[in-house]
Automatic annotation (TrEMBL):
The lineage of its organism: Bacteria, Pseudomonadati, Pseudomonadota, Gammaproteobacteria, Enterobacterales. Pfam families: BPD_transp_1. It comes from Kosakonia calanthes. InterPro entries: MetI-like (IPR000515), MetI-like_sf (IPR035906). The chain crosses the membrane at residues 94-114, 126-146, 153-173, 193-211, 223-243, 255-276. This is ABC transporter permease. Its main location: membrane. SUPFAM superfamilies: MetI-like. Residues 88-277 form the ABC transmembrane type-1 domain.
Amino acid sequence: MSQPPYIRPEFERELPPLRNVAVETPLPWSQRIWNLAWLRKSLIVLLVLALWEVASRVQQNDLMLPGVLQTWHAFSEDMQNGELPEKIVNSLSILLKGYLIGSVLALVASALAVTTQFGRDLLSTLTAMLNPLPAIALLPLALLWFGLGNASLIFVLVHSVMWPIALNTWSGFSGVPETLRMAGRNYGLSGPRYVVTILIPASLPAILSGLKIGWAFAWRTLIAAELVFGASSGEGGLGWYIFQNRNELFTDRVFAGLVTVIAIGLLVEGVVFSSLERVTIKRWGMQR
């Protein structure tokens, strides 16, 4: 005759209530202020500006190194007379066209690579050939094929944007766990639906990283290209603004153009991409 299984007696231990103990301890105000990321970054910017002003006063040569105040005066003057806003609009309009076209082409190439063997061979071969090629080296061909104008700028922008975004997207697609892939296939997903509903959400951190790298490549390529033939369409952008003022020895305006380029880059990085990351991958717990 078998013995019945032993049943452990249930018991519950009452914990003494906490009395006169603060559940949350507020941080000191100095630490709360230091935890503000925008404040820390603003202090770094102020430190750089202070070093710039000190170096300018030590050198005492406005033609070689104008100070912060001279640069601010030139910046505010050109903003008020409308010259600098016009250059900013010209540069950003061309940049957005090239960036969007390059991003779409990169996404299509990555989707083709993840679904077919021919697409994988095509993407790996083309990225190995063309990604190391500097976009500025294609300027002569762009001039020959598209002539003087915005089409040449857009061509080199597409080249500078497409390959880094495609590489990061492909890397993100390759890192998607097999469990998610099997789940998608069990639901009968294939082709574009499989890419949109499974691969893109799962690899969004890598895609956003590629978009940020592509944006930086596109911005520096555009300024470099405009320095060479930015006024070919009769308008010109920020690069042409810098080059023209350098020829006329308006060094304070050259610095105003450079500061504008840096400020736009900081705004896009700190506002556009940070907001996009906050509402997607950080909210979903995919990135800290």
